[in-house]
Specification:
The protein is an alpha/beta fold. The protein folds into 3 domains: about 100 residues; about 150 residues, Nucleotidyltransferase, domain 5 (2-Layer Sandwich); about 80 residues. The strands form 2 sheets. A 5-stranded mixed sheet has the order 5-4-3-6-7, sandwiched between helices. It has a two-stranded antiparallel sheet with strand order 1-2.
Length: about 400
């Protein structure tokens, strides 16, 4: 039990409540009554500090200000709605801090609303949930007001300064449905970086105006550079045509790696379903080859065996070859973490769950708000951060050697 609480007194209160048939939780329950007592005591203490004298103290007789009764208000707390009496002063200069003027919710409720919104629940669903579970009547407009405040923090987050160098940045986009006259897919671009310390950092979110395009990625990369990113050792992407050129314009020394998983998935699009297993087995020696020369030999063997039946697969790999082979120059520890965009795909999966729950959004701002909340709630316990550091620790040491100390030099 926390220091300062008398276990015997707590047991007495619980026993008394049970004897009187009072519930522990819920409206009018013991927890609500205790919350009322604690809040009113704290408010009375604040007023005493404001006036400079205790209740009934003769020192306040000619002080120029005094207590002036109280007014009732209901605040929504973690234990449900609680009606409290807020003390007043005659001068009207008292500004309570624990429950501010016009404040109707304590912080825990706002956190709950934001958490539910991050999971994709609509304002109506959140309102119904609070009413069902907590017995609290919170309007959809109030919930919208709470979540709208997030946009202020999002603007600051989106424009924050970035690190001068990142070992790896994963680039990807997901489509969301936005109703702008009519419902249509709009791409939301994400950049996820691995920091020099091995932690994950989502650098920003950007809503495009059409299909996922290299031209828009150039704007994204330029913005990141303007926010302080001077060097990226490797950029991992899904093979979008023109994206390597966009990256090279901003960071000429960055090595661009095409996601091997995307290459395999795209290969299956050109193959009959009954040949998927055989094609996958034939391609495996290519991307697991010990060197680029060995990968080329295995590729020629694949092209000879399957080229006549599936020429489109051959063209796909040949067009992507320059961005497919960079990871083959590194040892297994680096290969393991850069051969695919799995790192950002896991983030996308969380975002898609929130987006699917909403269906479509009335505008771009609503979509960004939902995605931003989902991103901010990715690692509530901090365990994900620890796993990232463990996963990347060895690879980052190898990165600094492989890239001639650029990682260390960029941090100075």
């Amino acid at each position: 039990m926390p220091a300062g609480l008398d276990p015997a007194l707590v047991a007495q209160l619980v026993a008394q409540a049970r004897g009187q048939g009072v519930q522990l939780s819920g409206e009018g329950g013991l927890l609500a009554q205790l919350t009322k007592i604690v809040l009113e005591s704290a408010l009375d203490g604040e007023l005493t500090d404001h006036l400079g004298y205790d209740r009934h103290d003769p020192a306040g007789a000619n002080s120029g200000n005094s207590r002036n009764g109280s007014r009732s208000k209901t605040v929504l707390t973690d234990v449900g709605p609680v009606e409290i009496d807020v003390p007043r002063d005659r001068a009207g200069s008292f500004e309570p801090a624990i429950v501010k003027k016009r404040q109707r919710r304590l912080s825990g409720v706002e956190d709950l609303v934001l958490s539910l919104s991050a999971k994709g629940l609509t304002t109506g669903e959140i309102s119904a949930h609070l009413a069902e579970v907590y017995g609290a009547q919170v309007s959809k407009q109030t919930i919208s007001t709470i979540t709208d405040r997030v946009m202020e923090g999002m603007a600051e987050w989106q424009n924050r300064p970035l690190d001068p160098v990142y070992p790896v940045v994963f680039l990807d986009a997901i489509n969301v449905k936005i109703r702008d006259g009519k419902v249509a897919n709009r791409p939301v671009y994400l950049a996820l970086a691995v920091t020099a310390e091995g932690t994950r950092d989502i650098l920003g979110l950007w809503v495009g105006d059409g299909g996922e395009g290299a031209k828009f990625w150039l704007q994204v990369c330029t913005e990141m550079k303007n926010r302080g990113v001077e060097d990226i050792l490797m950029a991992v992407c899904d093979g979008l045509k023109g994206l390597p050129d966009a990256i090279e314009q901003v960071w000429p020394r960055t090595v661009v790696q095409t996601c091997v998983i995307h290459l395999l998935r795209n290969s299956f699009r050109y193959a009959a379903r009954q040949d998927w297993d055989a094609v996958a087995k034939a391609l495996r020696p290519v991307y697991t080859a010990p060197t680029e020369a060995a990968a080329t030999e295995r590729w020629l063997e694949f092209a000879e065996a399957w080229g006549a039946r599936y020429p489109a697969i051959v063209r796909l790999w040949e067009n992507a070859w320059a961005e497919f082979t960079p990871f083959l120059a590194f040892d297994a520890e680096i290969r393991r973490v850069i051969c695919s965009t799995n790192a950002i795909e896991s983030v996308n999966a969380r975002i898609r769950r929130a987006v699917r729950a909403r269906g479509h959004f009335p505008n771009e701002t609503a979509a960004l708000k939902c995605i931003y909340l989902a991103v901010m709630s990715l690692d509530p316990t901090g365990q994900g951060r620890k796993r990232w550091v463990i996963r990347w620790k060895g690879a980052l040491n190898a990165f600094d050697v492989a890239f001639d100390g650029r990682l260390t030099a960029g941090r100075k």
